[in-house]
Amino acid sequence: MDVNFYQNAPSACGVYIMKDNENNVIYVGKAKNIKKRLVSYFNGAENRYQISYLLKKIKNIEYILTNSEKEALILENNLIKQYSPRYNIQLKDDKNYLCIKIDKKKDFPKIELVRKIDDKDALYFGPYPSSKKIREIIYSLQKIFPLRHCSDRSFQKRTKPCLYYHMNQCIAPCIDRDNKKEKYKKILDDVILFLEGRSTKKIINILTKEMWAASKREDFEKAAFIRDTINQIDELVKKQGVQGTNLKSIDVIGFLDGPDYVNISLLFVRGGKLLNKKDFSLRKSLDLENTLSEFIISYYQKNVILPEEIIIDIDLDDKSSIETYLKDLKKINVKIKKPYDSQTRQLISIAKLNASSFTPQSTNGLLMLKNIFHLTKEPERIECYDATHLYGKKNACVMVVYENGNFVKHNYRIFNVEEGFDDYKALYTALKRRFNHKEWQFPDILLVDGGKGQLNVTKKVIDELKIKDIFIASIAKDEKNSIFVLNRKNPIVLKSDNPGLKILIKLREEAHRFANVHLKRRLKKYFVE
Fold this sequence. Notes:
The protein is α+β, with helices and mostly antiparallel strands. The chain has four domains: 3-83, GIY-YIG endonuclease; 98-198, no CATH class; 250-358, Ribonuclease H-like superfamily/Ribonuclease H (Nucleotidyltransferase, domain 5, 2-Layer Sandwich), CATH 3.30.420; 364-528, UvrC, RNAse H endonuclease domain (Nucleotidyltransferase, domain 5). It is 42% helix and 21% strand. Strands 12, 13, 14, 15, 16, 17 and 18 form a seven-stranded mixed sheet that branches. The chain has a five-stranded mixed sheet with strand order 9-8-7-10-11. Strands 2-1-3 form a three-stranded antiparallel sheet. A hairpin with a 3-residue loop joins β7 (250-257) and β8. The longest helix is centred in the last third of the chain and has 30 residues, at 499-528. The protein is globular and about 90 Å long. The model is unreliable at 240-244 (pLDDT under 50).
């Protein structure tokens, strides 16, 4: 495409949609001034690898004008969700971290452990890095603060106290509910203050006074129990790692700007405590600022806790639009700020250090696969196929998709093949049907679970359909994870710590997992029939 095409672009606020020769959407962006943004991208593009590479792919650009930056941001986000363009960032669709939930709508809420943030009226605390750590925290909280442990159903049916009441770990609100409501509320408020990091010293002072009072009354058993409780609080605070006096909920974004990728380290700070961090490596969008804006929108629109502040050491032009969008989405005010005091500057420094200290497996692995298979560029899309069957009947073949270092689950497919038990036939039929879908983006690497037999079946389909520019390989389930490719007698054997091999194994295991999910569904239906 002619690099001067942007001369006809509108000088207005809106969204631009880039398409390739096959009319596939490959990039979606937004701008206050579309023409100005495109000029900044493509002037001198030959000196920037990602821009010059994208230029070769673009056949057409469409524009949608909007009345405001906010409308442009929302439209861009919706179009990215709809088309999943390969040059926009794609966050991995993995499990959320664990959080503590307290549902204040209930008269007697309990401390719950959850992954989904799906109740806007409930309180959430976290995220926490592992189930082990959060369970230790909940266990300690339940020993310190005598809230109920039982399920809602059990609580409604209970007519007498359970064992936790006799262990002084529950005030038994299941009996005499009216008289215990205020007491339970006070305990719950203390738990909330403690989780927010606002009342640790206050609680310890109150407990210390109660301990000495019990000792003067010669109630040594109670005094010893309170002493142990104080020690548990001290231990719990140590586990959470106090970092500062700023008690706001803060997320801190540190980044390392590479030539083609951006490393991001996200720190979670709650109540002055650094709870956890999460690392990301993203294929760079057209520029660093746009990549970071896309990251913030993509991450926080999911079921995650939205903090009071997001600290990032860069000026984002669309900062106010992102703040408004997140406020409308989550009904919570959030401010995006640059570091403003010694604590936030220290946290940014830690986040940047973390972003520069890890080399993501996906990035290294894709480059390694390029070199192992002698490809012209890093593979952007890999498809993996696994044939399966149910007791020799109801053959099927599954397809999983891996794009830019992430699994794209909404592109997974199942191809059912009912006739007889034949893995080769199932694979052959599935590949034929898959490549009949010309609208689906073709992979750079097509991987099959198996050996030379599966590889030859794949080659047969590729040859019959006269498909080019797809590298095919198979990976065997042997001790060496042997990789078979065309025009090579012996398999490729890589070291177990090779990043490229790790990606291929991960693909095979994901295909196997998806096949098992499908089998369980069919098995249930099979027995019903």
